Every structure is written in C-alpha cells, then in structure tokens.
Amino acid sequence: MAATAQISLEEYFRTSFEPDAEFVLGEVQERNVGEYEHNTVQRALLLWFHRHDREWQTRTIQEQKTRLSSGNIRLPDVSVWRRNVPVQPVFDSPPLIAVEVLSPEDRHSRVQERIEDYRLFEVPHIWVIDPIKRIGWDCSDGNWTRQDRFAVVGSPAYLDLADLFAELDEAEA
Predict the structure, then answer these.
(1) Nearest to 63 by CA among 76, 73, 50
(2) From CA 42, how far away is CA 128, in angstroms rounded?
C-alpha cells in the first residue's frame, strides 16, 4: 500500500483516484481492494444489509466517502446508515455500522488506525471480516472481539457469518 505526498483536502476532492483512495492526515492512502475473496465478501455483505434496508430502516452503501470528525476521509467497505440520515455526496455523520473486509495485504496497524478513526467519530458498530479465514471481529470498543453473529442492540439489524458464507457458497456453486 503506497502513499503519496501531502495534499490539501480541496485537491483530494478535485482529484480522481482509481481505485478510490482515503484522505488521512493530509495524505492520500490507497486501499487494498480488487481481490476476488475481498470483493465477493464485500458484495455479499452489501446484499445482506441491502435486502433488509426497508425492514430495518437503514441505507446500505459500498465504499461511501465519509468525512470524519478528525478531518480524515474514510471509505468503509460497507456502511449502514439509519434511513433518516440525509444523503450527501460525502457523508459527514457516523454510520450505524462500518464494516471492513480484510485483504491479504492489510497490516494490523493500518486497520487499527481506521478503527480508531471510526471510534473517534462515534461509529457505534465497527466490524471487521476476514474473507479467507471466514471469521469476524467486533471492534466497536477498540478491542478485537471474535464474533460469529453481530447484532445492533435495540434494533433488528444483525449479521450472521455462518449464514452469510452459506449464501456466498450457494451463489458460487
């Protein structure tokens, strides 16, 4: 994951990146994307939440630019917002859920930085999924707590990894 020189936020917004990149402390940071396992799990997550959006009163978006309170621009692999949050080109309010899907090149320290950024922005649910090992962690409190089933307290919203991977296997068969 290479990083470029320091630029302004205005220059970041004027520039097109392929694939899209994050803006962290004045630096453009490439994201590890494009590998098959990462992409299929990201798509499965997007479809999982999207299928329930009406029932759960949520809005699910893939790689949505979000301006955090730190001034950084992050693009969670999958974000789930409450339906009443206004749609913007760049969201400036915390999603209900931010899900990151690991890639083989992801370094723990870089993922932890992203998690801390989300926590400072008061994202209530931060989940990390490893598509190769087919495991996940709830990182909402800053710790990596292994989970097979994630839930949003006080809401019907949830994610069951066994069901998600079973659906993915069925689709891939």
Answers:
(1) 76
(2) 11
Angstrom distance (rounded) from CA 164 to CA 86: 28
CB atoms within 10 A of CB 56: 19
pLDDT 10s digits, 63-103: 999 999 888 889 999 999 999 999 999 999 999 999 999 98
Amino acid at 163: D
Give the pLDDT score at 1: 45
Residue 2, pLDDT > 60, answer no
Q: Is the peptide bond before 19 cis (omega within 30 degrees of 0)?
A: yes
Beta bridge partners of 129: 101, 136
Count of CB atoms within 10 A of residue 49's CB?
24
pLDDT of residue 34: 67
- Indicate the domain borders of the chain: 33-172
Q: Which two tokens stand for residue 135?
A: 């495991």
What single-letter DSSP state applies at residue 34?
-
- CATH code of 33-172, in short, is 3.90.1570.10
pTM of the model: 0.88
